[in-house]
Amino acid sequence: MDLRQLRYIIAIAEEGQITAAAKWLHMAQPPLSQQVKALEEELGTALFKRGHRHIELTEAGQLLYTRARQILDLSDATEREIADLQHGLRGTLKVGTVSSSGSIILSSAMQDFHKSHGEIHFEIHDGNTFTIIDMLQKGVIELGLVRTPFKHELFHCKMLAQEPMIAALTGDLDWCPDRDTISFSELAGRPLIIYRRFAQLLSDTCAVYNFTPTLFCQNDDARTTILWANAGLGIAITPASAFQLAAHDRLHYKIIDEPRLYTSIAVIWMKNRYLSSLAETFIKELKL
């Protein structure tokens, strides 16, 4: 068994198909199948349950997959640690960030970090919270900037400041132009535009206030929420910092006075996995 074979097992397990794994590994399918067969013969057990279109890990395969991840993480970590010793703080930091204002926070943080560490480069991956978490687990990125709520168990977290939800709207939809803050109950019966990420949170809060939200539109991007509201189609409900994500020449916003709707951006990284000196320094110097 060698590192190359372990990478094959990981690729097949995560792609769910030999063909897809071979494509991801930039190799032909027959040699990959032969390597798996040879490894199964060496270990004396089947590693995969083969179906017509999809294959799954056996119990032994799941154990090997878990250990393979750990072994490869340790191998990669050793290479990075040696590079850190040889070259100091330099290299590329791979970070995933959510569209709902994470990119704004990250760009400011990168500017500050680059001033102190000019040899650092960044590789940024955009996505929603669930996509970022998936990339962290697969080792595509080292750090993630995600928005609460999310399941914390697998990660170390550094929480940034909390922020409220806002109602962004055009003047013709404004029922209280003299106020900058509204209560959540005032949203009852009004056409709401929401980022699907917060649908459950809003639904749960509506239940507390005994009304069903009037959803004009649900979508998968905070920027879309802002753009649709700017067109006068409804009231955008987003975290306050997301107001800066898209052009809006007709909108103003009101803070929703509801503690249940406060969220935070969090920097997260995997537990039980090596964190490079570069990532550690970035986290340490990241201002709250």
Automatic annotation (TrEMBL):
What taxonomic classification does the UniProt entry list for its organism? Answer: Bacteria, Bacillati, Bacillota, Negativicutes, Veillonellales
**PANTHER family, sorted:** HTH-TYPE TRANSCRIPTIONAL REGULATOR BSDA (PTHR30419:SF28), HTH-TYPE TRANSCRIPTIONAL REGULATOR YBHD (PTHR30419)
Pfam families tied to this protein:
HTH_1, LysR_substrate
Per the similarity annotation, which family is this? Belongs to the LysR transcriptional regulatory family.
- Keyword Phosphoprotein tagged: no
Which keywords accompany this UniProt record?
A: DNA-binding, Transcription, Transcription regulation
Species name: Megasphaera hominis
Name of the protein this chain belongs to:
LysR family transcriptional regulator
| InterPro entries registered for this protein in UniProt | HTH-type_LysR_regulators (IPR050950), LysR_HTH_N (IPR000847), LysR_subst-bd (IPR005119), WH-like_DNA-bd_sf (IPR036388), WH_DNA-bd_sf (IPR036390)
Where's the HTH lysR-type domain?
Answer: 1-58
Query: Does the entry feature the keyword Nucleotide-binding, yes or no?
Result: no
